[in-house]
Amino acid sequence: MVKFVLKKLTDREIRIVIEDQDKHSLPNLIAKLAMKKPGVTFAGYMIEHPMVSYPEVVIVTDGTRSPVDVLREVVAEAKTLALEFLQAFEKALSNAPKERV
What we know:
By secondary structure, this protein is of the alpha+beta class. It has 2 helices and 4 strands; from the N terminus they run E-E-H-E-E-H.
């Protein structure tokens, strides 16, 4: 299970640390999706040292939106994308020709 630690929260910025062994996939997805949202001026992640630290995701807005709302929206979108991918994958598997061993 992934653990999140809230490191900073203001009306324009949120910083969360994602404590997971995969140090790039989830933070990168969150940052990329967040940058597409209206009102977001910066989204990215950093890792102080890949061997001993976890990624810190940063989302900064222009003040027209709450960074918490942006993060919630991004997580919901990521979930939708994952479910759509899973459905497409299952469909492709069911339509694939069966090989004989």
